[in-house]
Every structure is written in C-alpha cells, then in structure tokens.
From TrEMBL:
Database matches in SUPFAM superfamilies: Acyl-CoA N-acyltransferases (Nat) (SSF55729)
Keyword set includes Transferase: yes
Entries under Pfam families matching the protein: Acetyltransf_6
Gene Ontology MF annotations: transferase activity
The protein's name: CelD/BcsL family acetyltransferase involved in cellulose biosynthesis
InterPro entries in the cross-refs: Acyl_CoA_acyltransferase, BioF2-like_GNAT_dom
Domain of life of the source: Bacteria
Entry keywords, A to Z: Transferase
Keyword Transport: no
Origin species: Motilibacter peucedani
BioF2-like acetyltransferase domain: residues covered: 182-324
Length: 348
C-alpha cells in the first residue's frame, strides 16, 4: 500500500513527493533504491538495502512501513523504513536498519530532504506513542536527519554508547596499537598451539560459494558461544535464524562480505564476518568455538584481521560496528558518537 503525503513549505517541498509505503512486499521492493541512497549518504552496510530487506521479510510478527521522499526526477532523496512489532507489552516501533547494537540509518541527500522526511515521519511516530506504543529509533549518527526528527517530534536526542574504531596512523604494525597484556596473550596463544602440535591457519573468503559452504559451521559456532554462557541463542529462534541467514546471504550477494576463518588443525576454531567498504573494514560479527578456548582463537583471528586492514593501502579504518562491551575489543583509538530517539520521552 502506498499513500501520498502532502509536503508543505519550501519550493523544494512543492517539487518533492513524500509517500507512506506499507506492507512487506512494497517496502522490500525499495531495496535497490535504498542501497543507492545509503551509498550516496556514506552509511554503513547495516543501513543497506540487503540488510533492510532481510529485516522486512523475516517471519517475526511485525508490520513494515516506510516514509520516502522523492525529488523532481523521481530519485529517492530520503527514506526511513520502520517495523511495528507486536510485543507482550504492546507495539514497539523500530528502524528496519541496524539492530543488535549496530548503527541504523536515516539517509537523506541534503538538509531540505532531511527536513521533509522528519516532518512526514514525526506525526506517524507521535500517533503510535499516543496510542500506547513505544518508539525506539537508533542508534543512529548524530547528524542533520536525527536533529530534524528531534525538532519535528519535540523530543530530545539521547546519547548512547559510541562505536569504537581503529584508525591507521603512522604505523601499519598492529603491535604498535596493542597493550602489553594483549601482545603477551597473542604470543602465549600461538606458542601454546605450536607446543601442542596444532597448525594455526587463517583464511579470508569472499567467494559466495565458499562463504555458503562455511555457513553451517558458523551457525554452530554462534550457537556454541551462547549456550556456553547459559543463554538461549538468537539462532535457536526460527525468526532469529531466518534473519541471520537472510542478512548474511543478502550482504554476500551485494559483494561486500569477507569471512575470515581460523583453523586449528582441520577444525574451525573461530570466524569473523567483515564488510569491505573502503576506506573502512567493518566487523559485523565474530565467534569462536569453546572447545578451543585454551588457544584464544578469537583473539588470534581478530589480530590477523586487524593486521590485514592496517597492511591494506585502500583501508584506513577498522570499524567494530557496535558500542557493546568496548572493553573487550582488541584495540581502538577513536569512536563515532551515536544517539537515539525514544517515544514516549524517557521520564514522562
């Protein structure tokens, strides 16, 4: 379902078309245009068309909808894709991009388009909050779109955990970025594997066929870490598993995925899913198999990935993609501030 919203105000508004799009089929059909828009706005793959399409088409009880702004030529100039999710406490409205601590996206090509998007989106969000629903948009970059949405809703933005990153400076040697303790851990882990007669082998795969062949082992490693912590894995839930698979296969098809693996002997001991978006290399997820914890395979693989980034001229930044548990990261020397918008406003 698609409905036209009447833009008001500036000449740009009169030349633009603002539409409300509803339903999984119509919203997912925007994926290619959303990808072009997020690329133009330099947003990470967690705001990509493939990521959004995967979220929209999963089987979780939800109603997808979007507000889109098109310019005079029909080009998509701004967009927000959202999900109304049914919970035990009522409806929760979130962005289809981001999730699990990853940056979401509210792309707009310029300030006027950002204002048009915010003015059309705000009444929809306020209506849901007034009906007793909860709206959580973020984390997103503290940019013009976020500030326009704050203005249009009358709700202040709230700072959330920033996303750490490692930026190459004068050195391309990872050891120059690591603490003494981490350098020691990496040496001990490598020496331990060598003493036990285990060959340590790292590989980096970008071939869709090779990545598809790795998926069952990656899924098992993902579940293993959650279960070892006494947690139900998100992959134990059919909707969670469907989202994980759809997101990965969609990103692989778009050509941005690199899967790094570390084998001890013939066994997969750890993996990292990276997103190649020069000049950034973004770490989407990583897991290790508990059976091999004695050798710290996750740390060894992270180090191999980080050194690969530092040694690649086209890459300048290792983006950890989430602000969750920054104290556990291998290394970071900068961070990107993030915000979120919540309705009803906290404290009211």
């Amino acid at each position: 379902m698609t409905a036209t919203l009447e833009p008001t105000g500036s000449l740009l508004a009169r030349e633009s078309e603002v539409r409300l799009v509803a339903g999984a089929a119509d919203v997912s059909a925007l994926a290619a245009e959303l990808e072009a828009l997020r690329t133009a706005c330099d947003l990470p793959a967690s705001a990509s068309g493939a990521w959004v399409r995967a979220a929209v088409l999963t089987a979780e009880p939800q109603e997808p909808w979007a507000v889109v702004v098109r310019g005079a030529t029909g080009r998509l100039d701004a967009a927000a894709v959202l999900l109304d999710r049914a919970t035990s406490e009522g409806t929760r409205t979130v962005l289809a991009s981001g999730g699990d601590g990853h940056r979401a996206g509210l792309p707009a090509v310029d300030g006027p388009s950002a204002a048009l998007l915010a003015d059309a989106l705000a009444p929809e969000l306020l209506l849901r909050a007034a009906a007793g629903g909860e709206v959580v948009l973020g984390p997103v970059t503290d940019d013009e779109v976020a500030r326009e949405l704050s203005r249009a809703t009358g709700v202040p933005l709230t700072a959330v955990d920033p996303v750490p990153a490692l930026r190459r400076d004068a050195s391309n040697d990872l050891r120059d970025y690591l603490s003494h303790g981490l350098r020691k851990t990496l040496r001990k882990s490598a020496n331990r594997a060598d003493s036990d007669g285990l060959a340590v082998r790292t590989a980096f795969e970008t071939s869709p066929a090779a990545i598809e062949a790795l998926l069952p082992q990656m899924e098992a490693a993902y579940r293993d870490r959650d279960h070892q912590h006494g947690l139900r894995s998100v992959l134990d839930d059919p909707a969670g598993l469907a989202l994980w698979r759809a997101r990965l296969t969609g990103l692989v098809a778009s050509g941005v995925v690199e899967v790094a693996t570390l084998h001890l002997g013939d066994a997969l001991a750890a993996y990292v899913v990276g997103l190649l978006e020069p000049p950034a290399y973004r770490v989407l997820e990583g897991r290790f198999v508990t059976e091999w914890a004695r050798y710290s395979p996750g740390r060894l693989l992270e180090a191999a990935v980080a050194q690969r980034v530092l040694s690649t001229p086209q890459l300048e930044l290792l983006d950890w993609m989430t602000g969750v548990a920054p104290e556990t990261l291998l290394a970071a020397n900068e961070s990107a501030p993030l915000v979120e918008l919540r309705l009803p406003e906290p404290g009211r």
